## 1
Amino acid sequence: MDSRENSWFLHGHESLDCHVLDVKGLGVNMEDSERALRLIAEKSPDVLLLDSTLARNFSLCMVIQVRDKMPTLPVVLLPDIRSALEARGSSREQILDSALMASDAITRALRFTHGQLGLQHALLQMLLRDDLTGLHNRRGFMALATRHLRCASDMGQPMVMFFADVDGLKAINDRFGHGEGDRALERAAACIKQTFRKFDLTARLSGDEFVALAVEVPGRSPAAICRRLQSKLAHCSSTEYKLSLSVGVARFDPASPVTLQELMRQADVALYRDKRRDRWVSDGPAPILHIPHAKVIQPATPGG
């Protein structure tokens, strides 16, 4: 037990049903709740345990503020068994037995919270992921891309956005059925996953439209990325048709930042500029689709 102006936690790694819990203690100044909230946000915990030796009004205030600032963070109030028993004049053995019982209750609460976190994560994945391709959906992309661009602007990091759609998807659906159209979308998504890095942001916006947001680094030009994507597509085409994507590219310049919506508009303009020039053509009984060279356009300047 620590003094009443500091919260008390176990330090170290505790095992719970074969899961390892990393338990950290945070010293809390009860006169500075804002600092306490900043500490919690910096640590990004899965669960917040509030020590019962904290003043009751402070604990309740913390719960309210945590709910406001971090609505998805579970909060567990630890029972103050020791203080209650000491007030009744209980023996040391009774205090120890009751502390063990309290520990068991906390363990059960954590086990329940762990399960709830798993369910919450699954629901979040359903909310932000596209069922067919496993990529982010429009909602997930818009939320995450906004954060990525904000960080890129703060850090002075250029980024590149790729807009793409599957060429001739309507012809594939009409000729081979919508089931084959779905398989074409799945193969296109798989090629996109293999082309971009894990920390790049990829999504299926709707129908046959895909988008990717990547950090621009030396030696990894947009043209090189498009060539890599083309190579992946060539190896996953069906025997009945060749799969291809039309791609438009726009660059995010942190020295002259634009909004996510504006960057998406620029990439969309580049995409349709390519599609007007390079249409897919039919070759025999199966549609033969062509990937045009991606065009990089600079962000629009004010008044430009």
Note: The CA atoms of residues 65 and 123 lie 24 Å apart.
## 2
Amino acid sequence: MKLVGIISTATLSLLLGIAAPVYAQQEQQDEKKGHPEQQQAKHEQSKSDPQHAQNPQSEPKQQQQERAQQQQRQDENKQQERAQQQQRQDENKQQHAQQQQRQDQNKQQERAQQQQRRDQSKHQERAGQQQRRDQNDHQQRAEQRRDNERPQRTQEQQRVQRSAWEQHRSQRWDSDHRTWQQRGGYNGYRIPDDRFRGYFGQEHGFRIYGLPFMVVGGYPRFQYGGYWITAVDPWPEYWGNDWYDNDDVYVVYVDNGYYLYNHRYPNVGIAISFSM
């Protein structure tokens, strides 16, 4: 029995060893021949995709071309973006340069205007100083001419005139002074207007020194412009002691009456009366 089992096992192994190579050889032949179903499926697939069947390497080349085109578009976009950015930077620099140029022009113009104003101020100041010097020289020469043209008074005349004016000096101007309205109105001689404009008014100043002088009723009287002028009011106590010799005076007609004003003290006028 044991012998029979051993022989059966050996026989089975021998059969399997012979069958395996034969089966493998048969599969190889079948693969070479191919199954009709598989060959038909491959044939249909080649019909549905003829490009793939004709050129199996066309798909990788197309992808490479697309990537190359995509890369080219990216490069072009980057180049265009850099160009636009550079253009914006150049425009900003140009705007900054123009702004700086305008600021420099404004500063230069302002400095020129300031210098012009300073020059004008200096010119005006020098012109004003020269004008004041000329006026002072003219005034001094005029005073000198008047002094030279003054008629010589005797000591007796000087004493009489000084005494008359001194007695007519006010002790308290506010209470001693009276206007023509307070006096009841002007009742002296009225000078014709054309005659008055020719000899009197603020622009026609004169000095009492050297003019014909007399005392009538205790009031000082002097002659000017062809008329006798009588000082009705006393003169303010704060006027200079010799104002009638050294100060320029003028006559105006205001508030229905004539008044004598002193250029040195132009705020007050003393009432006067005219006579032929």
Note: Confidence is low (pLDDT under 50) at residues 48-54.
## 3
Amino acid sequence: MSADVLERVAERVYRIRERFVNLYVIDVGRIVLVDTGTKGAEPLVREALKELGKELADIRLVLLTHHHLDHVGTAGVWKREAKSTVLVHDDDADVVAGRERRKGKGIGLRAKTLIAFAGVFAWSMRVPPLEPDRRLTGHETIDLLGLPAVVIHVPGHTIGSCAFHLPTEGVLFAGDAVNGRQGSPVPPWFVEDPGAAIASFERLVAKEG
């Protein structure tokens, strides 16, 4: 298996590293995707399926941690081509579906500088609106093809940000509610609700600890 595409992080969980974002593959016989990268991640996902000996039709579920384009980018491809079921929190569902537009803000000088230029490149990442199949509340346990996953609403980065905890695998998918790019976890730099982002970060870090 090529480490350039799939990196094993747990018994049934693999990471795909896109340039600026991670997306995850859960292999439970058939496939669950957690986030889908930008639209440029499509060939990476297709290659990952080959490495696992899977077919496109094996992608049954797509979990979205939040509405940003670098996490939603290929979700529409798998819904259309594989008839996958797409799940996202109710508070972000209308943004994914194109019925609502929402802007975040940068925290700190670096983030404010980056966000000022983000709009210049956002057009290149745009994808058609996607109607989610299921809206999550953030207070439920869902069945991932036989694997239980606890949904945790962690608003702040976006109002509908969710984390997904797989207790049997010892894995917590935090999305961008936790920023680990500096080597240690810190709150996100881009947020829709600064106070909620800090509170959600503290909850998740306590859970991981």
Note: The radius of gyration is 16 Å.
